[in-house]
Amino acid sequence: MDSKQLTALKTHNETLAQFIVRLSSFYEGLSAETDNELKVLRGHLSAKPDYTLATASINKLNNHIQLAQSSVKQHTQLTIRELEKSIKQFQQNFAQDQELTRQCALVLSAAQMPVNNLFELQSLCLRAIRLFSNVSQPVAADNSKNIQADTEGRQSGTLFEEIQNELSQLINSYAKKQPDEPRVQDLKKRLDSPLSEDDLLQTCLTVIRLVVTETMHEATLSGRMIYRIYTALGGIQEKVESSIETSSQSFEKRQKSSADITSQLNQMDQTVQESDSLELLKQQAKTHIASISSAVADRKAADNEEQQALMSLFNSMQTQLENLQRQAQLYRRKLAEQTAFSHTDPLTRLPNRLAYNERFNREYEEAKLDNRALSLAVIDIDFFKSINDRFGHQAGDKTLQVVGHHLKKHLHGDEFISRWGGEEFVMLLPFIEVSALEKKLDDMRQSLARLPFKFKQEKVSITASFGGTCLRMDDLPESMFARADELLYQAKKGGRNRVVVE
Ligand SMILES: Nc1nc2c(ncn2[C@@H]2O[C@H](COP(=O)(O)OP(=O)(O)OP(=O)(O)O)[C@@H](O)[C@H]2O)c(=O)[nH]1
């Protein structure tokens, strides 16, 4: 080998050594052992390369890399499986969103293709992240002040939307109570269209003020009633005290006149015994009789006075009692109105969750005591969110009213329906066994699906899913509802518009 060839070989070796050093840095991070060995290899190849030691190190690294490769493969498969699971769950959560469902299907089919290296895995993860952020980004990251509908007509700002819904329901209940109150009507109008965050906060404040004022008014009403009772009782007490005073004065007067009469009679007796002249006796008798008459007249006057005082006391007590009775009736009516109000859902006019809880406890106790059947069904309107999104909140409200009314029409006698919340209703069906329950619920489901809804000139079919169960011997109140809810979930999962009975 001449010196030219030797120099070329030296240069090639140096280039190769530098390349291996760079490559080894790139592969750092596979495992701690590989990283250590790569460091050793770089030591052998830098400055003055020692190829003998480097070869030994490369042999060791070959084993490490083989192990690392199979571990990377395993890890990649695991990551892909997890990714598929999350995307499927995500797809189920947003099943009503066709565009999102389509995008999920695309990413899922990409995940089923072979993934040859970490870069392909990275790219798959990136696609999934973009898919997930399609839904979450507008709420969290988009700082725009307005709650907007995106290109597919989906509403962003779900939290704000929920707050607006809650406020809207609250204000609707006030509107039913005070239909002519302009502030309530104004708030109702404001809450019917999407609001910016600032406007929503402002509206929140106004609603809170309204609720506080209303509560204080209610408290004032109760306070006024109590004050009236207190004043009336105070008036009665004054009259009783003055009547007692008059009675004790009359009693003293009566005692005095009785003593006067007794003394006159005693004197007369003595006069009769001592007198020896008829004329004198006559004169003295006249004097005594005059005194007795005056004492009797005093006594009569005292009796009259006392009687009048008593009469006036009774009259005044009667007036006060009549007054109090009127007030109490008014108050009782108000209390009854308030109880009915607090047990009624303002939108559908059906009993609300509080009413359901009370009714359930009663039915549950009675069914257990008499060992009789009791069925419970949970009903949830399908894809209700899309009605709100496509036709507006008012259309959603109308749907709830019609569905609630329709379900109620199918009930008889002791059967009970309430709005549980949102688009969910709960029914209690005493004396209904499982076989009858399934048929009854299915009749309701079918007739509901046939109802002709029309929003914005578009015919819409509304369906609901039903979960129904019967009381078991070992049931606790909560377990019965939880079971019906689980069955409803199965009805939803099974494709909706169906009844699942245990
Ligand atoms: N208009 C109106 N909407 C309401 C009311 N209460 C709750 N909602 C809305 O009802 C929607 C319920 O949506 P989801 O829970 O996603 O259910 P869904 O769209 O019916 O879908 P599935 O139940 O899975 O078939 C939410 O958008 C709520 O904002 C209400 O009183 N009026």
UniProtKB/TrEMBL annotation:
<dbReference type="Pfam" id="PF20975">
    <property type="entry name" value="DGCcoil"/>
</dbReference>
<keyword id="KW-0175">Coiled coil</keyword>
<feature type="coiled-coil region">
    <location>
        <begin position="307"/>
        <end position="377"/>
    </location>
</feature>
<dbReference type="InterPro" id="IPR029787">
    <property type="entry name" value="Nucleotide_cyclase"/>
</dbReference>
<dbReference type="InterPro" id="IPR000160">
    <property type="entry name" value="GGDEF_dom"/>
</dbReference>
<protein>
    <recommendedName>
        <fullName>diguanylate cyclase</fullName>
        <ecNumber>2.7.7.65</ecNumber>
    </recommendedName>
</protein>
<dbReference type="InterPro" id="IPR050469">
    <property type="entry name" value="Diguanylate_Cyclase"/>
</dbReference>
<dbReference type="Pfam" id="PF00990">
    <property type="entry name" value="GGDEF"/>
</dbReference>
<dbReference type="InterPro" id="IPR043128">
    <property type="entry name" value="Rev_trsase/Diguanyl_cyclase"/>
</dbReference>
<dbReference type="GO" id="GO:0052621">
    <property type="term" value="F:diguanylate cyclase activity"/>
</dbReference>
<feature type="domain" description="GGDEF">
    <location>
        <begin position="372"/>
        <end position="502"/>
    </location>
</feature>
<feature type="coiled-coil region">
    <location>
        <begin position="73"/>
        <end position="100"/>
    </location>
</feature>
<dbReference type="InterPro" id="IPR048516">
    <property type="entry name" value="DGCcoil"/>
</dbReference>
